[in-house]
Amino acid sequence: MITLIGLGPMGQSMVRVLLENGHGVTVWNRTASRADGVVAAGAVRVETPADAVAASELVLLSLTDYAAMYDILGKAEDVLAGRVIVNLSSDTPEKTREAAEWVEARGAKFIAGGVMVPAELVGKDEAYVFYSGPADVFEKHRETLALIGRADFLGEDVRLAQLFYQAQLDIFLNSLSVFMHASALVSSAGVSLQKFVPYAKDNFKMMDFYLEAAAEQIEKGDHPGDDANVTMMGATADHIVQASRDAGIDVVLPEAVKSHYDRAIAAGHGRSSWTSLFEVIKADRK
Ligand code: NDP
């Protein structure tokens, strides 16, 4: 028996995948009616968080954030000892660390997870999930967890799953916003976005070409600017801001990008590669 608490789109998909693979699943959700579909598919609904936690050694949480975990497990503290809590909700690495301490102080083990696909892809080939926490606990449940998606264990530092998850979402959300911005720029001239999309796709594909070499330069702290230097690209960043102003569209995103180039130039990286932006971005770290 596996317990799953939190029946948003993600939790519901996970329950279905577990049921399809022959597991019994106990479920609890704050809004009880949201369990109707998975109960019809074979899951067992219980009345309270404590009943849900008590039903299984392995307890999966799929909640909006980590605050929801305390709301729920705070009502099941007496039955937590000996359980393995796998929290697949999104939040910050620091909140993850605090949550692990809270759970472990109550005699349970804690694994953090970050699911990297939308609900319709849970359990499919494309699905993968970052995990971190005690390796022996993860290994014990790896086979079951791998039903949700490929299980990528990142290490015993429990923050790592959410660190990688948020870094991936950083890329994803910024990419979506920048595509919206570029689309607003193109459509300001009355051009159909369908005409622009193939070029945007090529641009995203080109990222594949840059990343490994960029990471190598960043890790060496060596930023040769022979082909494209910060001064040239900073001028382009400024052209994007000006073009956006001329088009009457939002300039927050291009101004943020331009500020990276301005600060890199001010720090003496004008003749270096664009990878030297990393030096000014990381300089803002605490
Ligand atoms: P939803 O926000 O739709 O649902 C999450 C669940 O959390 C619901 O069951 C909700 O209960 C419950 N919940 C929230 N707050 C509380 C609380 N204070 N007390 C009790 N229960 C609470 O999320 P999703 O299913 O879309 O996502 C789940 C997690 O997975 C999120 O952290 C999300 O970031 C992540 N994720 C989502 C993806 C997606 O495409 N949807 C993709 C990858 C990851 P109730 O039904 O009563 O509101």
Ligands (ions, cofactors included): NADPH dihydro-nicotinamide-adenine-dinucleotide phosphate
Mean pLDDT: 97
Largest sheet: 8 strands, mixed
Strand proportion, as a percent range, falls in 5-15%
Helix content: 40-55%
From the alpha-carbon coordinates, what is the Rg to the nearest angstrom?
23 Å
Give start-end ranges of low-pLDDT stretches: none
Strand order of the largest sheet: 3-2-1-4-5-6-7-8
What is the general shape? elongated
The ordered H/E elements are EHEHEHEHEHEEHEHHHHH
Q: Helix- and strand-based class?
A: alpha/beta
| DSSP strand tally | 8
Query: In DSSP terms, counting alpha (H) and pi (I) runs of 4 or more, how many helices?
Result: 11
Domain NADPH-dependent reductive aminase-like C-terminal: 157-282
Family: Belongs to the HIBADH-related family.
Pfam family, one: RedAm-like_C
InterPro entries: 6-PGluconate_DH-like_C_sf, 6PGD_dom2, 6PGDH_NADP-bd, HIBADH-related, HIBADH-related_NP60_sf, NAD(P)-bd_dom_sf, RedAm-like_C
How is the topology of this model organized?
Blueprint: E1 2-5, H1 9-20, E2 25-28, H2 36-40, E3 44-45, H3 49-54, E4 58-61, H4 66-73, E5 84-87, H5 93-104, E6 109-115, E7 128-132, H6 135-145, E8 150-153, H7 160-187, H8 193-220, H9 230-247, H10 252-266, H11 277-282
Helix pairs in contact: 9-10
The structure holds NADPH dihydro-nicotinamide-adenine-dinucleotide phosphate.
The site of NADPH dihydro-nicotinamide-adenine-dinucleotide phosphate has 21 residues, from helix 1 and helix 4.
